[in-house]
Amino acid sequence: MSSSSTFYIMTCPDRAPQACDTSAQLLESYLRLCAAGMLRGSGSSPSPTRKRLILVVVRDFEVEEVSKDDVSAAFQEDFGALWARMTKPSRYATSRYSELFHLEYAFMPSALLRKVDFMRRVGELQRRFLDPTADGYLFQRETSGTDGSIRYACPVPIADLELHAQNVFKALRQLVKDRSIDQHDSELGSDGSAELEAAVQMRRNQ
């Protein structure tokens, strides 16, 4: 079974543009894999029972400095803007991110200033992945549907796991290749046009 949870780590109160760019690339790759049918369980259209989880881990959080609601609102604003400017497959062009993802937040205190509290919170978060009896266990079975599917998980039969991993890896390599080509074309479009025009003018003057 492969997890369908997605993790975003944000150090409060920093909101670095580089982190946003990385997140956009990850989400774009994920959506293209879904649109290509490379990820089991994605279905033919967004479905509430198949939403993925984006677990936002907020580091160095101190409630005396900023409230959880303020941090959550700031992230949702940034994420909404990121989603709006992302390059999405046509299948998801008009989709809102709330149709595809659940957002959840884990607030962590400073590991240096409050080491004991930090380790306690790490343990609580770890149990949500490993202990079926823990509050907020991530892989509990759905009770609202009829299929009893496991929430935030994509079951892949053991017999198909190797082929599934190979296909996903090949698709990711192609995505990286396509992105490199797009970047190269963009650079040619911005710089190469002047060079081409100069070369043509030189030929005319010969």
TrEMBL record:
GO MF: GTPase activity
InterPro entries (UniProt xref): RHD3/Sey1
GO cellular component labels: endoplasmic reticulum
GO biological process: endoplasmic reticulum membrane fusion
Protein name per its UniProtKB record: Rhd3p
Organism from which the protein derives: Cyanidiococcus yangmingshanensis
Organism lineage: Eukaryota, Rhodophyta, Bangiophyceae, Cyanidiales, Cyanidiaceae
Gene: RHD3_2
